[in-house]
Design brief:
With 237 residues, the protein is mainly β. The chain is built from three helices and twelve strands. It has one domain.
């Protein structure tokens, strides 16, 4: 509901979501992991070669009372691109580091397929919405609202919590809006309870309905760990 309302405010913009969201390659992941292995890192050391920092947040994520570090990083533009860096769609990824009492960080996890790729037409830098750690929960929100080229916009909000089984996805909200009708749909999933809530004000003919429809369902709780997540798979309606 809140996401639909927010998207309606910017529905006068057009944009394009047509982009490659495949994420980092296995060779990129291996190189990043190898560069951080067995190292104590300052915050400035946390950006791997060939990447830039898009967003960062520090707070306690593993519940040990010490601030940890979460980053969204982006590939640097290719020198060989024909379109130029201002028009190039670039892969983005999430990095997690654990803090220690000495004030340095150790590499913890990489999310090579955990965030939307950068589009130069995004209204938000890198498509980053809320990026925060609050009460031990990491919230990662993509905002694919764009300024030109398409009729569609949307967003995906992930909520992660560290548990004995690993870093677990506990909540997911996906939203899409059709600018032509200024209407759309959201899917809000609680993986702890299995509760799913869908809201929509778009009918089968692509027109806006007078009332927002809400559908609730109870599914089996699911345990989805960090290593299993892929943006393209989960962040769809």
């Amino acid at each position: 509901m809140k996401i639909i309302a927010a998207l309606l405010l910017v529905s006068s913009f057009t944009g394009s979501q047509d982009q490659d969201r495949s994420g980092l390659s296995s060779s990129q992941v291996n190189a990043i992991v190898a560069s951080f292995k067995n190292r104590k890192l300052s915050e400035n050391d946390s950006i791997p070669n060939g990447f830039t920092r898009v967003a960062a947040v520090k707070a306690d994520l593993n519940q040990d009372g010490i601030d940890d570090l979460a980053l969204i990083i982006r590939e640097k533009p290719s020198a060989q691109t024909n379109e130029g860096p201002d028009n190039e769609v670039l892969h983005q990824a999430v990095l997690l580091f654990l803090g220690n009492q000495a004030g340095t960080f150790s590499f913890w996890k990489i999310g090579p397929h955990h965030f939307v790729d950068s589009n130069p037409n995004f209204m938000e830098e890198g498509g980053v919405g809320t990026f925060a750690i609050k009460k031990g929960i990491l919230q990662i929100q993509s905002s694919t609202i764009v300024s030109m080229g398409s009729w569609f916009a949307g967003g995906c909000t992930q909520k992660w919590r560290n548990e004995k089984s690993g870093l677990r996805l506990i909540g997911l909200t996906v939203a899409e809006i059709d600018r032509k009708c200024a209407c759309g749909e959201t899917r809000d999933m609680n993986y702890l309870t299995g509760d799913e809530v869908r809201t929509s004000d778009k009918d089968a003919h692509g027109e806006q309905t007078r009332k927002i429809r809400t559908t609730k369902a109870r599914k089996s709780p699911r345990v989805i760990l960090w290593e299993e997540f892929a943006y393209d798979t989960f962040c769809t309606l």
